[in-house]
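Sanity check. The docking grid for zinc ion depends on where the pocket ends up, so I'm generating a full predicted complex first rather than guessing from homology. Inputs follow.
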Amino acid sequence: MVCPFCNTEDTAVIDSRKNSEGTSVRRRRKCPKCNSRFTTYEKTEIELIVEKRSGNLEEFQIEKLESGIESAFGGQDITEKQLKTLVENIYKEIKEKGKKVKSKFIGEKVLQHLKEMNEVAYLRYASVYKEFSDVSDFEKEVAEFN
Ligand SMILES: [Zn+2]
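Predicted complex below; grid placement will be based on this.
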C-alpha cells in the first residue's frame, strides 16, 4: 500500500483488527520513509452468492445475467436501455431473496420476465436454462403459447 503522504510504495502494517462480524479488516500502517501513520480498510466486494446446481458457490456476476438475456433476444426486439432496465429489475428481485440464491431461482426469475415480454426470447432462454432433456419438453413449453 502506497503512503498517501509521500508516495513511498512499501508501508508497514503495525496493527490489524477485524470488525465484530469478521467481514472487514482495519489496518494501521506506518510509512518507513516519512513516519506518517494511516488507516486502510479491507473488505470483500461480493454482494450476492450464487449456488450452482452442482452445489458450488460463485460470485454473482451481473454481466453474465445480462449477456444471457441479450443472447435470448438474439440482438432483436430490445434496446440497450430496455435490456439494462430489465437486468436491474431482475437483480433487485433476486437480492430481495437474501445474500445467497440458487442459480435455479435466478433462471426462474428471468423466465418470468421474458414470458411477459417476448415469446421467442422466453423460449430461447428456457431451452438453454432448463436444460431440456428431450424435444418433447421443449414442445410442451411451446404449446403453452398456443
Ligand atoms: Zn510516507
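Relevant for the grid: DSSP finds five helices and six strands in the chain.
Also worth noting: Strands lie at 12-18, 24-30, 37-43, 49-51, 57-59, 100-102.
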